[in-house]
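#onboarding

Welcome to the new folks! Below is a worked example of what a typical request in this channel looks like: someone posts a single protein sequence, and someone else replies with the predicted structure as tokens. Don't worry about understanding the tokens yet, we'll cover that in week two.

Example request:
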Amino acid sequence: MKWGLRLALVVAAISASALLALLVWSTGNASRYAQRYDTLLLLNGVLAIALIFWVLVLSGRLLRQIRRRQFGSRLTARFALSFALIGVLPGALIYVLSVQFMSRSIESWFNVRVDTALEAGLNLGRAALDSQRADLMARARDMAAKLGNSGDSDMTLAITQLREASGVAEALVFTSSGRPIAFSSSSYGRLLPDMPPTNVLNQLRVSRSYAAAETYDEKGSGLSGEGTGLRLRVVIPLNSVDRFSSALGVAPDMRWLQVMQPVPEQIARNANQVQQGFRDYQELALSRKGLRKLYGITLTLALILAVFA
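Example response:
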């Protein structure tokens, strides 16, 4: 049994040294501490097992001495019991208080009022975007009604006048095959239109309209200056000269009107911040059970180490 005690003592010493070294190395860096947390937990477990084994072996040896009525065994047992009570009772009390404090602290992170406030802020941002999108859709329909009977040769002048009168940033008339017919932009350096992506064209074949808020690159877009990477895109069918084919939706030269408007900087910034905060809060809420389990294991190991040390 002596070799077992020596082995447990060696393992405990090595684990304690490695644990202390890792703690000193990773405490100053939170990301490094998170990466090494599994290793720290494993070393704590090894150290706890070694100490438990050591205490069990010594307890068994003391019990055998008491049964043999060896001199000084009862006095040794009384000292051992006294030291155990001194270590166990305060440790157990601190453990219970720490677990209660931990549970209440973690639950306080997920206040129902905070959740409701974040959700209300997110709904408020969506309502603001929906209101602007509905307004842009109404202006686009008004422009489409006035452009319906215009020929291709007069389309550029007409769309420029209507865009300026409607106050939109960019307007484009294109065919179902992707050929631009007329384009007008509030940015004088904007020469090429921003054609609808493939997913928008696919949706137009089904729903015959498109209206959504989307992100964009300010540096490469002529809409910079008002937005912060968020804009509204509305695409509706234009009344074609061939009304019968246009109504069937099978004409290859069916014309569409696209209008785009950047979202004001303050609304876009606040909407992005609320959305990011709500996303972070949801991720934290999903990890609530894991956090409680993680801190519970850590406190349990701390209690074991404090008691059996």
